[in-house]
Amino acid sequence: MSAKGYLVVESKVTDPAAYEKYKSLAAAAIAQYGGRYLVRGGKAEILEGPWSAPQRLVIVEFDTPELAKQFYDSPEYRAAREARAGAADMNMLVAEGI
């Protein structure tokens, strides 16, 4: 069994209207590459450690880390990132998991 790929995204939205367009484009690209939202902007509560609570947290599961990276580098997600320009500050990483 190969490892799953998880995108972990921390986002601070600065332009909610423009961010809505990004969300729509990103969701379509995620679906196209077989991704599934596990967390999509719900409440995040710090239980331990010096974390900074993210304004918006998103976790997406892909069948492999390679698929997560293909999604990120895809023309579809590049269009979403262009739509997001100036609408949010974002940190994103891919992690292997089970």
From TrEMBL:
InterPro entries for the chain: Dimeric_a/b-barrel (IPR011008), DUF1330 (IPR010753)
Location of the DUF1330 domain: 4-97
One Pfam family per UniProt: DUF1330
Superkingdom: Bacteria
Official protein name in the record: DUF1330 domain-containing protein
Organism: Candidatus Proximibacter danicus
